[in-house]
Amino acid sequence: MIITLTANPSHDRTVALTDRLERGAVQRAESVTSQAGGKGVNISRASVSAGVPTLAVLPAPKDDPFVLELLSAGIDCRPVTQEGDLRVNITISEPDGTTTKLNSPGPEMTHLTRLAITETLQLRAGEGDWVVLAGSLPPGAPVEWYADLVTALSTTGARVAVDTSDAPLKALVDRLDIAAPHLMKPNGHELASFTGHDGDALEADPVAAARAARDLVARGVETVLVTLGKRGAVLVDADGAWHASPPPTTVVSTVGAGDSSLFGYLLAATQGRKPADRLALAVAYGSAAAGLPGTTIPEPHHVDTTQVAVTALDLTQGD
């Protein structure tokens, strides 16, 4: 089972334009879609499509339309009551695949809500192969909350993956000596934000990205999966480093591609595959997501690992 926490869930609305976005202009939309979303929710959606048991934990009233939508999609939920309306995130998608995101902050999270979520995760974590802590934190949640959750879950036997950014990511990195998750999934720019590297340089150079990720492994993180956009992804653990190049893809929307990559890795891990094969499935899932509109999460029939090229990296050269 894959258990997900979406700390700051959102109603994701995607506006697909017929032409390039023009600031200050009036433009027609080709379509507008809405879906219950958030990083953890996206991973739970992918789990259901792949036939993997999942449990989505999130702050929301039990009868909220968001929760009802997930239940109707076959996603088992454990909503924890929270006051305030869930946020709305808007994605503007251009014909060439360029996406612009407008994310709102979300409702204030109380101390009692955080305690209830922590207790829920601790109670259910032992049933799961992985617990995924994903996305931004809402107002009211301390930036150290993910690090606190990693520590709280350390005795449950579940493996913990974290995919976040900005202050929560930095707070987690600052506490790796006592709160190192089993898996971290930054992109190149997120990795650069706390390693002192240039984000564009890491995105363009898989070896440089792998070397930067190696520092996290040295600090206690078991595995680091770094997504690099059109350059694919790298995977680093104590035994080696690998780079996977993506298959030819016509990019429609990059929204959800990183979440899909993370799910691909988790799926392969639960199947007992070797690291290189985990990376191949991660990149295949991320590429499939990029080729789908809006926040559409790939189903297994969208995913093809045969066109993903994986190579082992030698990080000793130049040391």
Description:
This protein has 319 residues and is of the alpha/beta class. The chain has one domain (2-20, 29-312): 3-Layer(aba) Sandwich (UDP-N-acetylmuramoyl-L-alanine:D-glutamate ligase). 34% of the residues lie in helices and 24% in strands. The chain has helices spanning 39-49, 65-72, 111-125, 145-152, 166-174, 188-195, 199-204, 206-218, 257-270, 275-290; strands at residues 2-6, 10-17, 29-37, 54-59, 77-80, 87-93, 99-103, 130-134, 159-163, 183-184, 223-227, 233-237, 240-245, 309-312. Helix 1 (39-49) crosses helix 9, helix 6 packs across helix 8 and helix 9 (257-270) runs antiparallel to helix 10 (275-290). The chain is globular, with a radius of gyration of 19 Å.
**What class, by secondary structure content?**
alpha/beta
Q: In what order do the strands lie side by side in the largest sheet?
A: 5-4-1-8-9-10-11-12-13-14
CATH class: Alpha Beta
What is the CATH topology? UDP-N-acetylmuramoyl-L-alanine:D-glutamate ligase
Secondary-structure element order, as H and E?
EEEHEHEEEHEHEHEHHHEEEHHE
Q: What's the number of domains? A: 1
The chain-level mean pLDDT equals 94
Shape: globular
**Amount of helix:** 25-40%
Question: Which blocks of ≥5 consecutive residues have pLDDT under 50?
Answer: none
Highlighted features:
319 residues, alpha/beta, UDP-N-acetylmuramoyl-L-alanine:D-glutamate ligase, globular
